From TrEMBL:
CDD domains: HTH_LacI, PBP1_LacI_sugar_binding-like. Gene3D superfamilies: 3.40.50.2300, lambda repressor-like DNA-binding domains. InterPro entries: HTH_LacI, LacI/GalR-like_sensor, Lambda_DNA-bd_dom_sf, Peripla_BP_I. The keyword Membrane does not apply. Keywords: DNA-binding, Transcription, Transcription regulation. Residues 9-63 form the HTH lacI-type domain. GO terms for molecular function: DNA-binding transcription factor activity; transcription cis-regulatory region binding. This is Ribose operon repressor. SMART domains: HTH_LACI. It comes from Devosia limi DSM 17137. The keyword Transcription regulation applies.
C-alpha cells in the first residue's frame, strides 16, 4: 500500500530509507558522537530524500528547550524596529534558534496578549520593549527576558540594551550649533513616553551648557509617525516667527512628515526650514533633500539583545544597562547659516 502524500515523514521512514534502526537514525540526526561517519551520512541523505524535519516541540519537551525566542516591539512598520528585528533574527539563527516577532502597536492590551502567547509557545526567553513605562507584569512573565528601549531604564534590576540617547542628542545639537542653529524647535513624542523626557532633558542640558535658555525653544508633541510629524510641523509653521526655521525631530518618520508639511506650505527645505531627524532609517536617504539624521544602531541593538537574552537563559546575567553609541549622517536637509550668503547686486552679470 502506498503512503499518503499528505502524511508527514517520520523517523521510521528515514530509518527504512537508510537501512538502520529507528534509534540509530535518531542518534545520527541528534549529532551523537557514537555514530560512524558513513552511517551519519546515509541517515542525513535519507532524511533529505524523504523530506523529514525534526519535531522541535518533541525535542524541546525532552531537552527543556524549544529553540524559539520571542521579540515584542512597538511598531514593526517603523523601519528602525524592523532593523532591530533583523539583527535579533540573524543573531538567533547563528545559535540555531528561531525568533517569533510580535508588534504591540503601542497598545498595552496587545502587548499583554503577545506575552501570553509567548508563554504558551514555550519560548526559551523573550526580548521586550515595554509599551507602558509602568510595565508591571515582569515578575509574572515566568520566562527569562531582557528589555530594550527607553522604558527599560525604569527597571534597574533588569538586563537591558538601548541606544545612547544623551550621546545622540549631543551629536545633533553640536551639528546644529556649528551650522548656526543654536535654539531649534523640537518635534517630540507623546508626553506619556519616557523617550520624550530623555530627549528633551538632553536638549536642555546642551542649551544650559551653552548659556541658552531652554525656555525659548518651541516644542510640539505628536505620535511617532509620519502623520504625527506632519501635523506637528503644521502647528509650528502657524506660529509667529521671523527668519529661518530649524527643527530637531525625535524620529525620522516624524522628520519626513515635517518635510511634507513644509512643501505643503509652499516652503522649501533647507532654504526656508532646516530639519534633522533621529533613528537613521533607510527612507531618509531617499527623501528630497536627503534627511540629515542621528542613526541609532538598530541591527546591533537587536543582536546584542539576543546575546544578553542567552545570558539570562543560561543564568549568567550581569543585570546592567548597555548603551550603544549613535552616529551622525549628514545629508542636505540643514542650511548652513554660519556662512554668510552673498548678496546679489541688481543688474550684475548682464552685458
Amino acid at each position: 500500500m502506498s503512503k499518503s502524500r499528505n502524511r508527514r515523514p517520520t523517523i521510521i521512514d528515514v530509518a527504512e530509507r537508510a537501512g538502520v534502526s529507528k534509534s540509530t537514525a535518531a542518534r545520527a540526526l541528534a549529532g551523537s558522537s557514537n555514530i560512524t561517519d558513513d552511517t551519519r551520512d546515509r541517515v542525513l541523505k535519507a532524511a533529505s530524500s524523504v523530506g523529514y524535519e525534526r519535531n522541535s516541540l518533541a525535542v524541546g519537551m525532552r531537552s527543556g528547550r524549544s529553540g524559539m525566542l520571542g521579540l515584542v516591539i512597538p511598531d514593526i512598520t517603523n523601519p528602525f524596529w524592523a532593523e532591530v528585528a533583523r539583527g535579533a533574527q540573524d543573531k538567533a539563527a547563528e545559535s540555531g534558534s528561531s525568533l517569533l516577532v510580535f508588534s504591540s502597536d503601542w497598545d498595552a492590551a496587545k502587548e499583554a496578549a503577545h506575552l501570553r502567547a509567548l508563554r504558551q509557545a514555550r519560548v526559551d526567553g523573550a526580548i521586550i520593549n515595554p509599551v507602558a513605562d509602568n510595565f508591571d507584569d515582569l515578575d509574572r512573565f515566568g520566562l527569562p527576558f531582557l528589555l530594550i528601549g527607553s522604558s527599560a531604564e525604569r527597571f534597574a534590576e533588569t538586563s537591558s540594551v538601548g541606544s545612547d540617547i544623551a550621546q545622540a542628542v549631543q551629536l545633533g545639537m553640536d551639528l546644529l550649533v556649528s551650522k548656526g542653529h543654536p535654539a531649534p524647535s523640537l518635534i517630540l513624542g507623546p508626553k506619556s513616553r519616557l523617550a520624550r523626557a530623555r530627549f528633551l532633558r538632553a536638549v536642555h542640558e546642551h542649551c544650559i551648557a551653552r548659556d541658552v535658555d531652554p525656555a525659548i525653544l518651541d516644542v510640539e508633541d505628536g505620535e511617532y509617525t509620519v502623520e504625527g510629524g506632519r501635523i506637528a510641523m503644521r502647528r509650528l509653521l502657524e506660529r509667529d516667527r521671523v527668519g529661518h526655521v530649524c527643527v530637531f525631530a525625535a524620529n525620522d518618520m516624524m522628520a519626513i512628515g515635517a518635510m511634507m508639511a513644509v512643501r505643503e506650505a509652499g516652503l522649501r527645505c533647507p532654504d526656508d526650514v532646516s530639519i534633522i531627524g533621529f533613528d537613521g532609517i533607510p527612507s531618509g536617504e531617499f527623501a528630497w533633500p536627503g534627511l540629515t539624521t542621528i542613526a541609532k544602531p538598530g541591527r546591533d541593538l537587536g543582536a546584542r539583545a539576543v546575546e544578553g537574552l542567552f545570558d539570562e537563559i543560561e543564568h549568567r546575567p550581569e543585570h546592567r544597562r548597555i548603551y550603544l553609541p549613535c552616529r551622525l549622517i549628514e545629508r542636505g536637509s540643514l542650511a548652513d547659516l554660519s556662512v554668510p550668503t552673498p548678496k546679489r547686486v541688481s543688474g550684475a552679470g548682464r552685458g
